Each structure stands twice: as C-alpha cells, then as structure tokens.
Predict the structure.
Amino acid sequence: MKVRFWGVRGSIPVPGPTTARYGGNSSCIEVRAKEGPPLILDCGTGARPLGWDLLARKVPNVEVLFTHFHMDHLFGFPFFGPIFSPNCDLTVCVPAYSGVDAQSKLGRYLNGIYHPLRIRDVAAQIRFEGVRPGRVFERGPYRIHGVSLNHPGGSCGYRIECEGKVVVYLTDTAPLARPDEGLTVDKPPPAPEARVLKAMSEADLLIMDTMFSWEEYLEKMTWGHAYPEYAVKLAKAAGVRQVALFHHAPDASDEALDQLAAKWSTATEPRVFLAREGLTLDLEG
Ligand SMILES: [Zn+2]
Ligand SMILES: [Zn+2]
C-alpha cells in the first residue's frame, strides 16, 4: 500500500515562494492498494493535481472519503478531474446519515451559487454514501473504521486496513482530555483519549493534525486542532510505527516547518516526520 500527500496545509491554501518546499495546497491524500481503486482522503486543493494524475493513469474507479465539510477539505472537489470524466465511477463517502443526506450536504457547496457547477451536472457516475463515526465499512479492498473527532461541527477520522497494513487519518481534531488531565507529561494518556488510541493502535502510519504548537493550543482550545506533543504521546502509547505531522498552519513558512522538523523528526519508532506535498510512502518498506 502506498500513500502520497497531495495537499498538507490546513485552513486555506497558501501557494508562494515561502511555502514551495512543503507545499501550499490544502488537505488531500491518496492511498493506493496494489489492486483496486485508489482511496482519496479529503479533497482540498491538492485534489486538483491529483485529478490530473488519475486521469493520466486512466483510473476508472475512485473512492473518496471526506472527514468533514470545512472548505479547506473540499475546495478541490469541483476541480477534481475524474468528476468530469464520463468514464469514471466514483463513490463519495461523507459523514452523513444516508446517501441522500451526503449528496445534499456536499450539494450545498456545488449548487450554482458558491460555485458555477451543480453537483447533478457532473459527467462521472457518482454514488454518495453517508458514513458514521463508530461504524466499520468496506470500500474496494479497504476496510475502514470511522472515529469521531473533536472539532467544531464534527470531523470523522479513519482507520484504513488493507494488505495487512494500517493507515490512520486523524485530522481536524483537538485532544479529548483537558490540558490538566496529563497530556504533556510522561504518563499514560488520560482516559478520554481511549477511542482515539484504539483507532490508531499498531498503525503502520498515523497522519495527524498538528496545526498548533502547545502554546497556541492553550489559546485556541475550542478551534479543534492538536499539536505535536499530543500526536507523539498517543502514537507511542498506541504502538504506532510512523507519524506524519499534518495540516500545517497557513502561516508556517518552509523555514518554520524546517524548525518543526528539526525538533520532532526521529528515526526510531515511532518515526516522526513532517508531511509535505509530493511525499510518497511505500508501507511495504
Ligand atoms: Zn482543516
Ligand atoms: Zn475543519
């Protein structure tokens, strides 16, 4: 199973010379099994170059999973090439009660007002499905567990199992425990984190929202984002092998992210590194 980062930025895309190395596109990741369709995690602006790549590869089926509806995670969907291809079948899973509810929720953005395109006008065959945190479902070769995260309006994280490997995508989430419950000290993670720990248990790769520093988190605890100490602490406790720090702050320049990488990168387990655009990981080793 391969994982490629097409967009690693949170909140808003920030292209330009100060973000060129880590990338300015917002959240979009491609998970690719050896057999079967690719699984796309969120469609931030990284979905635009990804779409071109999928069309060039003549990929006929695409599975898309959305964590939630904030704009940085769906900016790229109306510009995602496969939706304009009559030769493409897509399944789009979003946190919703049903397929009709899923289409209606995404359709609020693609309704001819906020974007010239209406969701019913696209050329591809799109099947919408509602996913609920706490449920397990299968899409192509992927067995997927949804996990409820701590974010304004909600966000659904995913544990994805395929070919004997596990990728866990937890973005747009703040700690569940309060800061005084022991999140930064060297003792076991506090009880409220149990469901997140279970979701990431023994993962080969954890992709985790670390948009804030610890100090920023204390100032913006209700904004629904985490910080590196939290990601690394939970990853160690859960036996995770690799942690990609993800959903970088829009104001973080390449130099600032270099400093973050220097502080957090490790080669020993769990291996910690910063996600950047274009990075491809082969979980077979
Ligand atoms: Zn976001
Ligand atoms: Zn969000």
Observations:
- The domain at 2-282 is CATH 3.60.15.10 (Metallo-beta-lactamase; Chain A).
- The longest strand covers residues 89-95.
- Helices lie at 47-56, 99-107, 194-200, 214-219, 228-238, 254-264.
- Residues 10-11, 27, 70, 72-73, 172, 247 surround zinc ion (ligand 1) (CB under 6 Å).
